[in-house]
Amino acid sequence: MTTNQEPAIAATGLRKSYGDKTVLDGIDIQVPAGTIFSLLGPNGAGKTTVVNILSTLISADGGQARIAGHDVTAEAQAVRDAIGVTGQFSAVDGLITGEENMLLMADLHHLSRAEGRRVTAELLERFDLVEAAKKPASTYSGGMKRRLDIAMTLVGSPRIIFLDEPTTGLDPRSRHTMWGIIRELVSGGTTVFLTTQYLDEADELADRIAVLNGGRLVAEGSAEELKRLVPGGHVRLRFSDPVAYEQAATALREVTRDDEALALQIPSDGSQRELRAILDWLDTAGIEADELSVHSPDLDDVFFALTASPVPSQPADKETVR
Fold it and tell me: How far apart are CA 129 and CA 144, in angstroms?
């Protein structure tokens, strides 16, 4: 059983190769219970391989992993009992109804007929699928199939859910609906391991994000922490008084001028300390800016900076922000 002291997911030194291709080259992951952990990486980076190893679908070539306190190799069945997995491709059977898909999952989890029907009714209502329950799943929209997919995953009341690119191919409205579902799961105590290609999704949902490239984790931290790893952050000061603008431009170092807008751009990591230093300097100099705004790199900048080139062949510590 997962305790407060033991992470819901803990992996050390995971390795996996297919022939001469190394897919994972020593991956360490720690995910506290009741949080959302997001794994980012370009296509082919090994995200699905990580999910498949942690969910016992395939074996690692090296390293160790524990899920919900159970070793994925020695206690594989106990791990399976504790988790749910929703992959990139729907597990929904389009030839039968949504309700029949749910009841099939209940049978697979060895629930009694009465319990299976109770759980099915509850989840269909929770995921707003009651009206479509008697219709063939092949008639469902992409968003409805995804909701049914996750509902099926929840039949066994898993404490940990692996969502492998759950919103791929969904329209913006369906993606936002899915985000709400994921937040609701976590608020109920579920741990979510999320892989995604959508950077805004990780930014919006994850408590902690890791970036996978070339088989290694090259950075890890909260979204805000990761954004501070790449250059491009700055403070923008805008003036209405040309005299104040010139005074500030002359006195401040490493400043980029925008004479037409009477605006100055100062490199900054956006930290409270740096902002306070800029404000203190303006007060001391008796210069008043009409507008101050902070601009930080977004996750797109982080992603491109960290995955722009292959990882060096020599081992290198990943950038970790605590």
Answer: 8
